[in-house]
Specification:
The structure is a homodimer of 297-residue chains. With 297 residues, the first copy, chain A, is of the alpha/beta class. Chain A folds into two domains: 5-130 and 286-294, 2-keto-3-deoxy-galactonokinase, substrate binding domain (Nucleotidyltransferase, domain 5, 2-Layer Sandwich); 165-280, 2-keto-3-deoxy-galactonokinase, C-terminal domain (Nucleotidyltransferase, domain 5, 2-Layer Sandwich), CATH 3.30.420.310. Chain A is built from ten helices and 14 strands. Chain A has helices spanning 49-60, 89-94, 123-132, 167-177, 192-204, 207-210, 213-219, 228-245, 259-271, 281-294, and strands at 10-15, 20-25, 31-37, 65-68, 83-84, 97-100, 103-105, 109-113, 116-120, 140-144, 149-155, 158-165, 253-257, 276-280. In chain A, strand 13 (253-257), helix 9 (259-271) and strand 14 form a beta-alpha-beta unit. In chain A, helix 3 crosses helix 10, helix 5 packs across helix 8 (228-245) and helix 8 (228-245) crosses helix 9. Chain A binds chain B through residues 74, 82, 110, 112, 115-119, 148, 163-167, 169-170, 173-174, 176-179, 200, 205-213, 215-217, 219-220, 222, 236, 239-240, 242-243, and chain B through 74, 82, 110, 112, 115-119, 148, 163-167, 169-170, 173-174, 176-179, 200, 205-213, 215-217, 219-220, 222, 236, 239-240, 242-243.
Amino acid sequence: MGTGMWLDGFIAADWGTTNRRAYLIDRSGSCIAEFEDAKGILSVPAGGFDAEVAEMRERLGDKPLLLAGMIGSNRGWVEAPYVPCPAGIEELARGLVWAGEREAIVPGVSFIGDGRADVMRGEEVQLVGAIASGLVPSNCLVCHPGTHNKWAVVAGGLVTSFRTVMTGELYNLLKEHSILADLLKPDVEPDDSFRSGVQRALDYHDAQAELFTVRARVLLGQAPPETAASYASGLLIGSDVRIGLSGNAADNVIVMGRPELTELYAAALDVAGVSCIEIDGERCFLAGIVKIAEMMR
Amino acid sequence: MGTGMWLDGFIAADWGTTNRRAYLIDRSGSCIAEFEDAKGILSVPAGGFDAEVAEMRERLGDKPLLLAGMIGSNRGWVEAPYVPCPAGIEELARGLVWAGEREAIVPGVSFIGDGRADVMRGEEVQLVGAIASGLVPSNCLVCHPGTHNKWAVVAGGLVTSFRTVMTGELYNLLKEHSILADLLKPDVEPDDSFRSGVQRALDYHDAQAELFTVRARVLLGQAPPETAASYASGLLIGSDVRIGLSGNAADNVIVMGRPELTELYAAALDVAGVSCIEIDGERCFLAGIVKIAEMMR
């Protein structure tokens, strides 16, 4: 740390389990080139990360690398141990792990408390980036939908606790492998069927109790099959929203992530009577990774 | 109906989605031969049921057939429309559908009410058999674990309502395809880990909220990996038990099904402070199918 090498721009990457998004950041902190591909960590064989990093440099330039996400997990390149809550941008910068002289990996964040344990890798850069750049208030509840939705409590500009809800993965499992698979083929929309699923989950308090009704409603002529996907997603996301709001003040809710997902969670929060602000997760990632790089100059 | 052909014994089958169990019943109503194989309805090509039925007769004898389960669904041999709740053995016998002169199919049961819809196929024979033969009281709450657990309310000797909870399928999806797959490889036992998962679900009210902690607890050294499968199963079954007991009197709870599953649900009910009686589902099926055949004599 503290070297001058980051002054002349760098390559940032959000390197996840199944995908990799890489950005060339210039000396002013702007993204001037980028690419995304399917070279997530699970597609890289053991010992193969040096070659993948070299390929990133071929595409974006011979710059230092600042990597975040599952690349720092025990299945990734070099393990970057979790930083415990409360965590902010300084804790992440202090926890950087160097995979080489010009390759740093951002640590994940862990939470132990309330009789449970939780971890995140990747979302923390978006969270601290949004906080540090003023995109979100320093006290708020952040919902970060994805394969594993995160509800993060931000207080005093730090991530003080969070909870992971596997909603995205559960929906995908049901869509790809379950008895509901045929019914879940259509795209999910935040329409009336979605909202009625949300309302049902909010009223009844448990998607597990209601998922089979998605099939039974259609078999018994109580709902047209084309509404099943949105209704099922509404059940799961409604249940997720109830979980996230439980015990948390709901006056400052931020939904951060990919717009097609934040739209669904914003609709579900609306059904729950909670207003929110949607912000783009990629913008937050870039803000966060640039802030971390600035701390190393 | 009303023919004498059932007097000289018959073949009964519980013909499900992935498996088929067939029994030769003698004139006294006793099972004297049986087999089980993987020829569930999804493995039988369109138009292939005549051949499968002929093969059953080759193995067990040239007898009339009384079939139950998914064989009567819209993906089965001949569709046997659902009989609505309240339903007992007479309603099932009246709803028999004939696939041939000597081949009858027992209908499933449907429930529409409380703002939801539900269906069962196969469990209804066990339920009415247990009621008609006095294996269960005429007023009770029956839990029938399986791929799709059923909580059935029995009143006055009839199934008056029921709810399906997809717990078995959810666990299998997580075990086979999810980020938890590696951790869920061991067999589930009703041990302390299982019971702590049940307690957590009963306290916190939602498996969806807690499933990811199965992984995080291990990553952060809060739980040994070999406890993860039982803990995760405890979370799902604990949540299922809370759903089943919700709004239902819990003084007469019967857990019916395969012993390795009824054992887990009995342990979860015990954590919830509810005593139950476990009974073997196959015995109930045989009691039910014989009672239905008797009504046709």
